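Standup notes
- HV: blocked on the assembly model, inputs below
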Amino acid sequence: MTTLENQMPDVVMTADHIRTKKLPVVADLAIAVVALIVAGAIVFGTGIGNWVLALVLGLVLYLVGLNIAAGRVEGRRAARNRMWRAAIYVACLLAVIPLASVAWTLISKGSSRLDGDFFNASMNNIGARDAGGGAYHAIIGTLEQVGIATVLAVPLGVLGAIYIVEYGRGKLTATIRFFVDVMTGVPSIVAGLFVLSFWVLIVSPWFNHGTPRFSGFAAALALTVLMLPTIVRSTEEMLRLVPGPLREGSYALGVPKWKTITRIVLPTALPGIVTGVMLAVARAAGETAPVLLVAGGADAINFNAFSGNQSSLALFVYQQAGSASKYAPDRAWTAALTLVAIVLILTIAAKLLARRNRLSR
Amino acid sequence: MGDYPSRSTNATAGGSGMPGRHVRSAGNGVSPRSYEEPPLGGGGALPKKARFSMESGFRGLSLAAGLMVLVIIVAIAIFLISKAVPAINADKSNFLTTKDWFPNDASPHFGIAALAFGTVLTAVIALIVAVPIALGIALFLSHYAPKSLATPLGFVMDLLAAVPSVVFGLWGRDLFQNPVRDFSVWLNHYFHWIPLFGGDGPFGQSILLGSLVLAIMVLPIVTSLSREVFQQTPAMNEEAALALGATKWEMVRTAVLPYGKPGVIAAVMLGLGRALGETIALALTLGITFNVSFNLIQAGGNSIAANIANTFGEANDVGRGALIASGLVLFVITLVVNMTARAIIYRRREFRDSAA
Amino acid sequence: MKLQRSGYVAGIALTAALSLAACGSDNNTSSTAGSAANASAAAGSCTTGSLTAEGSTAQANAMAEWIKDYQGQCSGAKIGYQGTGSGAGVQAFTAGTADFAGSDSALKPAEHTAADPKCPGGVAMDLPMVVGPIAVVYNVDGVKDLQLDGPTLAKIFAGKITKWNDPAIAGQNSGATLPSTTIQTVHRSDSSGTTDNFTKYLGTVDKADYTFDHDKTWKAPGGVGAKGSDGVAAKVKSTPGTLAYVELSFAQNSSLSMAKVKNGAGEYAQLTADSAGKLIEGAKITGTAPDLTMTIDYNTTQAGAWPIGLVTYEIACSKGSAKAADIKAFLTYTSSTGGQSVLSDLGYAPLPESVRTQVAASVAAIS
């Protein structure tokens, strides 16, 4: 493959073309420099833009120039090859810029309030002109809501996946699998609206003397709806990776099927399942919209997820972002940094666990 | 929630025998027939099948859990409709064509037109920006980058997919807004004759800003899905192209891209689904207006999800119902997009499996 | 084996979470100087009940300060006030989820009939508690001390003046270099008493140009919306070329530029707590006791008065509320001279003494 690729970019076997000519690296660099200078001259000479435009124009000129030069030396096809490669590298660079900016802003702005107070205090009694305050109540809210959602979603999700892989067949299973996939794409705000119309507006009045009440539990329900399909999908994939002979061996020893599943199949797939659950938890912890709709938001600490408004870290970020207090942006960014840290730690841990897992590819 | 209501019924349904072969079971070839049929020999030692055994109970439980997904999807539709219909009935103007949103008035009049338009417009522009870049990165990761670079970069892409949307929204509003405003002013100065970039300001919290932030957010999703399909291109196809004297790009164009096309389309559709449903990032970056305009750079724009987040707190009963109705429209749009994407993937999977 | 390890990790995480859970606190002792001075205000009238209230965001900052002071003096008292908007507050009061509500507009007759049944034996009364001057804020590079008169404001918000360098604006600001850019008006996207009062003002000063009814939601076309007073302030702060209306306290919190507006006496008034107080001195009480609905004269000819403002009310039961004692104790504090004196630091204006005594009398009659 490489031999062909290196030596035969142009295969027209005439006497002139029997040996391919290559554009020297120096020429490549020279084109880049010239393109940048020309672009700079055009942009700043006419005064139509700033350095960003100069850079973009320079890039375009470079691609065009490279195409022409390489076309002269190496032939049209090789030139196109070069141009596309450059374009693909540029796409990569282009994506890295905003992402690096996000990361840098998070760290530089988020570190300003990274003090003990932030993790130990709530926003109770913090007026619009008071400094201080913290996200303790929000962290508690996130932990409780995501915890309850996990408790609800994991058994459902794992059992659902067991049905799909071990028991199911035919149209019903195909339908379930299809809708699990479709459910992955349900927008989080729709999940929030669903719990709002189902739990908050219809069920919760039964417990609260006829008036609808927000609660952390409602948020947990919405997160369950979001986590369920992710867990089913990842568990399903893991169960499929469990080798057949393990099951056969178990059956051969006369172990009933349900016991084979709970004692043999599940423990074998467990690390993979845990990975999937952690990824789902990470996604749920970052959700704002459903919590906004059904948890109500609060400034004080509320340990009871089943009664009274609760906040969550993501909601806290959103609320502080919308506040006019001059101390609010710092709180918002620090909370955002905390949230990203939690989510990334979960994700990285899950990925490392997946890497150690013998079953995965 | 829980599966209590349905458990007993399903347990009996599930337990009433599912004879036959075990087609989709993992580790093909496993067929635990011994519980459906009498064993051929030496079976006297095996336990007899009990009528209400753990086996049927467990099967019923798992069936109930599996059905839960269907129940939830149906329940979402039912409950949204049940809350939306009274509000739409209370609407004094046409829900589908009205642009205003005054559901909290004494005589409520509101419509989805401006919101649905904004939702689709921001999502489509986001994809127009994101897809070429995402495909470039996917090709880079699968075919161009050295392995030592591709692995960590792919890992970073996966991490980015996990960053919460509120963080992107905050970044878009506090940091990205200024460069985009400058860019908008520049566009407006030189290209104001194109309706997309017309108007006379002010610029800033515009469709363009919202779309660009969205583009950054869907980038990792489209990238990782398309990278996966590109990597699955059979080596034989690639080598055949190279053996015919194709350059690397020609190999990519003739072997990799056609093979990955359905997968890429599905990835784009999934990205579209995500972009349509995105809430907080747009609530923070769009200027809130209720009009239908293709002008991308003037302050304005709105989307269904952002409108829900913005106006939910102040809504009365009809207002809430109106928001739920708009959510129902969003649900239907994303459902159609997602089902299309999944249908493409499924057809492709069958094609691939049969080809393999 | 691996499983055990992940079990350990989970255990450690759980322990960490639990230890975190043990040490958080709701006790944010305030560092603002204002609270200590009013320490005696509520003495003797403490109750230990808990109150749930919600409503106007216009008075949210005042409420936060009052609650902080009140809870500081009355240990055991617990009051929650959510700034959800006047409309939502009235609804919550009518539905019974709020013990009292904050509203920027007095109850309309229809709202009264809905709310009165919550007060067996009494009525739902509007008690003016906070005077919230509405500032006209703008964000134009290089322009200080923008001056506008009422009709110009009305034309801008009605979309009839669209450029910053319109002759109507330039004529009032000789010397200022106004840009040729479009004026971006920002309004509240949610239902708000601030919008109601501001549109009332616009309709009063220039009925010919601002033809829209005053309402809690913004009705004029054009402009962009923002959620809550916070949202409006944040949007103006971040977008050049904007003009908006927002309560003084929020304008000050975000240190936005405030325009001078011409009052009925023909002078361009600067918005201060003092000039806002003068607006209220000219206001009349039009409700019948114990209800104390006030009407503001936007064309006030009082010298030095800022013309745009609102009175925010507490809506509470005169009789029959289950928590009457708690409500009475808290509102007694807020309507005392001590409670009112907190306000001017926060960008509000205290009630004129003549009005305050009537409010205190109504509060004292709660049972």
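- HV (later): unblocked. The beta strands of chain B are 101-102, 109-110. The CA atoms of residues 24 and 30 of chain B lie 10 Å apart.
- Next: hand off to the docking folks.
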